[in-house]
Design goal:
The chain is of the alpha/beta class. It is built from 15 helices and twelve strands. The radius of gyration is 22 Å and the shape is elongated.
Length: 329
């Protein structure tokens, strides 16, 4: 048996679980760049394929692997995999659904707190010897505690649920908008209430994005969306950068349609030095907090993700059906 592993070899080696099965499988490591070219001969007879969540696995690659039985995303995202082409061949496509929920929810809370406490301007002020001036300015302008905030969650999947659970001890009012309202029992479990999108944008102090990338959600956070938000509200995005219209967000920060934004994801990725959000006027720049798309890449996430990948490979090798199939095979 053979597995093709697309992504960082060092990561696949580090997090590969130690078992008789993993030892028995021959491994072919490919970089993202190599995977976009013709596959090397030694990769073509593999039964298993695992790919970095940002890797491209198009039909042209799948067609070169006659014995392929399963394609597994290393992460939650699988939009780079041609699921339809795999389905036509009866090849499972699986993801690590929910594996990063706890980690990303922590990053979401971090960005909320970082904006509310103006962490970056505060750090700059202390380093510049302006600690007292910054402190007095913040006391005069007011510092809002997270527990005072009404938080709106756009989407209510695994990550949004983990965020809601973590907001309970802070004492926030938490609302969500999703295409299907959850049961009263689920809402009670997570301490949330359903709200129409427009009402949420107009009433919440923090709006946090938790939807996948689909044709319907690309560019969803646009000018109309941002102008509906309160001028003193913050936007958080730990989902995907493609969901936010960068030009609209730049204007929202520059023209003060909203108070600020915290972004763990920015499109396109990697973020180039000339990206428009990196070149806002100084005042707007102070209201934008970035993190380098690390919400879901903790050590714990990778341990769980790679256990899932190899368990799925072993199940398929035995003729069993793996978990988290996303292409309905």
């Amino acid at each position: 048996m053979k597995a093709v592993l697309i992504g960082k070899k060092e990561r696949f080696e580090k997090f590969c679980p130690d078992s008789v099965f993993t030892e028995s499988v021959e491994k072919v490591y490919l970089s993202l760049e190599q995977a976009e070219k013709d596959l090397p001969e030694e990769a073509r007879d593999a039964q298993f394929l695992a790919a970095d969540a940002i890797a491209k696995v198009p039909e042209s690659l799948i067609a070169q692997m006659s014995g392929l039985k399963i394609i597994h995303s290393e992460g939650v995202a699988y939009n780079g995999i041609d699921c339809d082409a795999a389905a036509r061949r009866g090849i499972y496509v699986c993801n690590n659904r929910g594996v990063n929920a706890d980690a990303v929810s922590e990053q979401t809370i971090l960005l909320m707190l970082g904006l509310l406490r103006w962490v970056i301007p505060g750090d700059d002020a202390v380093r510049a010897g302006r600690q007292i001036q910054r402190k007095e300015s913040m006391m005069l302008n007011g510092i809002t505690e997270l527990g005072e905030c009404r938080v709106g969650l756009v989407g209510f999947g695994n990550i949004a649920k983990a965020v809601a659970r973590r907001l309970i001890p802070f004492g926030c009012e938490v609302y969500y908008h999703a295409s299907h309202r959850k049961t009263p029992e689920t809402e009670a479990e997570y301490g949330v209430s359903w709200m129409e999108m427009e009402e949420m944008l107009k009433s919440c102090d923090i709006v946090s994005i938790h939807v996948p990338v689909t044709p319907e959600t690309v560019g969803m956070v646009d000018e109309a969306f941002l102008k509906m938000m309160r001028k003193d509200a913050f936007l958080i995005n730990t989902a995907r950068g493609e969901i936010v219209d960068n030009t609209a967000l730049g204007r929202a920060l520059t023209e003060e349609w909203i108070a600020g934004a915290g972004l763990d994801t920015v499109a396109p990725e990697p973020v180039a030095a000339d990206h428009l959000l990196l070149h806002l006027p100084a005042e707007a720049e102070n209201r934008l907090l970035f993190s380098p798309h690390i919400g879901g890449v903790t050590t714990g996430v990778f341990r769980k993700a790679h256990r899932n990948i190899w368990k799925a490979f072993e199940q398929v090798s035995k003729g069993e059906r793996p978990a988290n199939i996303v292409n309905r095979v």
